[in-house]
Write a structure and sequence with these properties.
1 helix; mainly alpha; rod-shaped
Length: 40
């Protein structure tokens, strides 16, 4: 039971993390670059 639950959690977090990473690279990177340019 514990192994099964851990596997689900690991798979879920891996998927979630990769989604967040894609989102960050796709959307946040341009925004961060823009805000840094504005601050400069």
């Amino acid at each position: 039971m514990t192994k099964f639950r851990n596997k689900i959690l690991r798979d879920y977090f891996y998927i979630d993390f990769s989604f967040v990473w894609d989102f960050k690279n796709t959307f946040l990177s341009p925004l961060i670059l823009q805000s840094e340019q504005i601050n400069l």
